[in-house]
Structures are given as structure tokens and as C-alpha cells.
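Troubleshooting log. The previous structure file for this entry was overwritten by mistake, so regenerating from the original sequence record. Sequence copied from the archived sheet and checked twice against the printout by T.R.
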Amino acid sequence: MARITASVYTSHVPAIGAAMDLGKDHEPYWQKVFSGYEFSRQWMNENKPDVVFLVYNDHANAFSLDIIPTFAIGTAAEFPIADEGWGPRPVPKVVGHPELASHIAQSVIQDDFDLTIVNRMDVDHGLTVPLSLMCGKLDPVKDAWPCPVIPFAVNVVQYPVPSGRRCFKLGRAIRKAVESYDEDLKVQIWGTGGMSHQLQGPRAGLINAEWDNRFLDRLIKEPEELAKTPHIEYVREAGSEGIELVMWLIARGAMSDHPPRVRHRFFHVPASNTAVGHLILENT
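Regenerated output below.
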């Protein structure tokens, strides 16, 4: 059967992608950020999955504010790179895994979670920046991402957004779905977004490093309790965009019930106007 071997958690700051694309990743400011992913790229090379299930949020590129699904799974064979206003990022197209994606959709919907099935979708920096951080800079024509990717978009843009508790339970349903797939596949699940940041209003630029690191501690050691954190705490302590961290709970919920092995942990302030957090957890 298929199995989830590890989970990866990372911020998806758009400026990180721009720094890579423009060759600025070795500049002193950005090198401090990218140094935290040197181990991760080596780990990715040594632990290449058959599929990545990547949880992220769309930034009004695949979905306008007219229609915003709470949870949307990409079931297409491939996903073009979105033009976010200055042209698509120069990265390879994303190849999907329609068979596993459709199986997960079937299983999770029958498990009472309502998913929107998306057969055509452009993917933006929320998905491509994590791939670049973990896989390095790739030529959009000559290269390919190391494995198929199933995009899983979560609404953390327009209220009401899903609770951390529901996201954690959804992760468990995804694990059940993966383990019922009748093919020997190694699957990684990635949770992206966050950490503390606010992009507008009087608190624009807010970063709460103490709260972020406590979140990382609890994500590792007591995720089910962490999932009970109310939305207002995310907004108050981590800023309006800090609510993206509920997506990390989907990935954590999909892990084994046994304590995970922490392979890598990284935290840095700032990258653009946000904190950057990163974890790699392996199932034991």
C-alpha cells in the first residue's frame, strides 16, 4: 500500500522565489534564508518521494474572490505556472498524479469532508516557492520537479476559514486515504504558508518570533492540542496572514500517531516582511 513517510513544513514567501529567479540567493540578506534549506535539499535528494501532496493557499490566481472553495484538490495530469502579474515564474510545470488524487478525493469525501475537485488549475508561488526551496533552482524547459505533485488548496484568504481542529482531522482522513491506495508509493505531505506576518493595516510588518517558535514546539510535541487554538489567537499573535499556519496542521494530522523524528528545524527573521519557519518530520 501507499504510505506517508515524512512531512515538510515551510513558509512560501513570494520574495523568496523572486530572489532565486533573479540570482540573488547568494546575496548576504538572502543567503541567511537559503542556508536553512541546504540540509533540506540534500535530504530531499536522499529521500525522494514518489508523490508530494502539497497543501498551500491560492492567492487569487486559480480562484478569484467570486468563488473560493474551502478545500480544493487538483486532479489534473499537469498544472501550469500562474502569471501573478509579472509573468509566470521560470520554473518547470507541475506534473500531477491524477490516480492518487482521485482516490484521495473519493476516500476523503466518503469520510465526510467536502472537497472541490479541480481538473484545471494554475498554481502560484504558494506551491512553487516550497518546491524551489526543497529542490533548488531548475530550468523551466530542460528540468523537471523530482516527482509528481498533488496540489491541495485551502482557503485562508476569505473568512470564514477552516478551523485548525478541522484541518488536523482532515490530515488524518488524508492519511487513511493514502494508506488505502493499492500501490507501493512513498508519499510526502507538505504544509506551507506562515509564519507570523501581516501585510496591511496599522500592524503591517508584525513578526512574533516567540509565538512562532512555540508553535513549532507544539506542532512537534502536541499537535492535537495545538489544533484547538482559536482563530483569534492566530490573528492577534501572528498577524492577519498568520492564519495560514492552520495548513501545517493538515500535514501534521496526516503523520503517524507515533512521535515523529525531527530531521531539521529552521527559523529566521526576516525574509521580506515575514518570519520564515521550516521543519522536516519523518514517520517512525
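The chain has a mean pLDDT of 97. Archived copy saved in two places this time.
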